[in-house]
Amino acid sequence: MVKIRKYRPEDLGGMAALFRETVRTVCANDYSEKEREAWASADTSGWDASFRAHDTLVAEEEGILVGFADMAEDGYLDRLYVHKDHQRRGIASALCGALEERCRAPVFTVHASKTARPFFEKRGYAVAEERTVVRKEVTLVNYKMEKSNEKSTLAEFAREDLLRAAEERHSVRRYADRAVAEDAASLLSAEAEKCAAEGGICIRLLLGEEKAFGGLMAHYGKFSGVRNYFLLGGKKSADLEEKVGYFGERLVLLAQALGLNTCWVALTFSKKAAKKAAGFAKGEKSVCAIALGYGETRGVPHRGKPPEELCRGKNLPEWFLRGVGCAANAPTAMNQQKFSFSLKDDGSVSAERGRGFYTAVDLGIAKYHFELGAGQENFTWSK
Ligand SMILES: Cc1cc2nc3c(=O)[nH]c(=O)nc-3n(C[C@H](O)[C@H](O)[C@H](O)COP(=O)(O)O)c2cc1C
């Protein structure tokens, strides 16, 4: 039976060999020998790094590699190859279907060969453009094909998707020079409007705005390539900062589920330029920005406090511990994690913050994570 599992670095050699053999044999009806040779002799030295960065699956049967495929977070299907002796057994469909199922980007894209084009057409992909690529001075024709991801409507973002986003999110400060996909931008902008209305705060989504992160502050903060961001703020009030944290993190996790990356930023950007670009009115204070885009990497995990240091009480129920577990992954300014949750005698949950810089925003962020992990149906916040 064919099993599909995640990529492991020890698969690499077999995958490169399978790729060369498949190109040389399976594509013989569509590409000349010279073209196939040029394609098969592609440099695979960067494959391990991109397999690790992508969602990469391999198909194996009785321990033998029979196919593999990998998709980037933004829905780009980079490679899909099936062993020449195992064609027409549904392996490509299983690999492609599994990757599509796991990906939350709004559109899937592939650069399909002439050989693969009918396969993708059957799966609902349409040709957007005929392209040529040059390999070893030989020009090869392929097709940019696209299909929209039906799952990627907001209503279908299940709690599990957001929980997964909370686990996978890390701050990203270096971004690729790529515009936010249109569908993702429109979902984020609609959600930003909803959040602003619910919270009574100001949230603007700035796309293609280079000034706020183009100066020295952003440079010192090690930011590069930031061309999109949310600016959050509002009229001064006792709970403005906490609300900015809570609603901003809703946007952060949605962005992550859509295949984008983010970073909360309080200091290392030009607030003045951002306020101007966002058109904040007089009396509207800007609190934080959230950088947004496709990261050069997905970021790296940071050491955090263990969940037991983020709560108080004994014999705490499962749902409460799930809430604290999710809050342990919440971003905080300078990774300070100065918040704590406790369960009251009346069953309500109280969330407190320690003293320090931006701990009120941190608290709002942590509370959103707690609700997501614990399940809003299980508790109320104490007054
Ligand atoms: C309210 C807030 C403000 C932040 N301000 C900045 C900032 O000005 N510059 C920066 O580089 N990172 C900033 N960060 C990002 C944190 O440094 C980062 O979230 C933290 O180190 C944890 O890393 P992680 O997000 O990858 O888990 C901020 C985060 C939060 C929540």
UniProtKB/TrEMBL annotation:
Its EC number is 2.3.1.-. PROSITE patterns: GNAT. GO terms for molecular function: acyltransferase activity, transferring groups other than amino-acyl groups; oxidoreductase activity. InterPro entries: Acyl_CoA_acyltransferase, GNAT_dom, N-acetyltrans/Recomb-assoc, Nitroreductase-like, TM1586_NiRdase. The keyword Ligase does not apply. It comes from the Bacteria. Keywords: Acyltransferase, Transferase. It holds the Pfam family TM1586_NiRdase. It is an enzyme of class 2 (transferase). Residues 2-150 form the N-acetyltransferase domain. The keyword Acyltransferase applies. PANTHER family: ACETYLTRANSFERASE (PTHR43451:SF1), ACETYLTRANSFERASE (GNAT) FAMILY PROTEIN (PTHR43451). This is GNAT family N-acetyltransferase.
